Amino acid sequence: MKPSRYEEAGVSIDAQDQAIEQIRGHVGATNTPRVLSDLGSFGGLFDIRFPEMDQPVMVASADGVGTKLKIAFDAEVHDTVGQCLVNHCIDDILVQGARPLFFMDYVATGKLKPHVVADVVKGMSIACKASDCAILGGEMAEMPGFYKAGEYDVAGFIVGVVDRKKLLGEDRVRAGQKLIGLAATGLHTNGYSLARKIIFEEQGLKLADELPGTGRSVQDNLLAIHRSYYKPLADLLDKDHIQAMAHITGGGFLDNVPRILPKDLSAHIAVDSYSVPPLFQYLVDKGGVDRDEAYRVFNMGIGMILVVEAERAASVTEHCAAQNLDPVALGEIKAGDGTVVLT
Length: 343
Description:
By secondary structure, the protein is an alpha+beta fold. The protein has helices spanning 5-8, 13-28, 68-75, 79-94, 114-130, 192-202, 218-222, 230-238, 252-256, 278-287, 291-297, 313-322; strands spanning 56-64, 99-109, 134-142, 152-163, 178-183, 210-211, 216-217, 244-247, 265-269, 302-308, 328-335, 340-342. It has two domains: 5-166, CATH 3.30.1330.10; 170-342, PurM-like C-terminal domain (Phosphoribosyl-aminoimidazole Synthetase, Chain A, domain 2).
């Protein structure tokens, strides 16, 4: 048989077909009754009738997992980043009160390896099923010469829905409301470029080494799955017990909390109100990272911050503790200038 000219150029349609077959089961496992199309359609079909809502508002977001992928490449573990990607996207729309409906992905690589793509999508499937979110479709792109051997990039796109009267945000934030921090499971998906520089370049650690003070390997610390806060907080959202939320991603406390603040209010956060996890203590100490930069680069052990009415703080904290979110009283909203004040 005459060799395929396309394969000679570095692109294998057969490999793509193999990958599609390997992910078919993972994608199908996330189907909900609203999904009206099958894998392989040009576009995903989704039923958007919401008779239980007075005025449904669609909420959409897109994101990636940054240089956390470098850890996945070196460790040859690919399903965890798939879960991180989905959960990051879910948390991004959750802060506006939205529940996830469907997710779509984009995977690009220099040389398509079906089993690697299958592992990534397997992780996406695990996270989507856990949040009743369908994988509605996606794209695989083989781009020879564009990516290094063994590397790929992945991005996620999510759509959710919220009744307009339950939208969360700055218009519901008032002076006197309390801030409750919820524990992160690790770095989540941000700060990896600095973390990798400190751990590997400056301290000379390897993936299999124990990260001092943590009792876990470097690999386990850095591949810890980004937590989804959707299911644990769903009841509180239904009861309208949360006024606003900040997902602590790139930009940390200092850049993300202001996104939910009116211009005449500030968030006063007591950094000594909780114990910073050993992973972050190590990065700050060994990297010589000053306090303000640390709270702008890393999540410092807090993945989500809730804004609640003072009279609700105790019950919300109790609920979050029962959901194993390790809530802490971080501070409160005061008159100010739309910034975060670390105390």
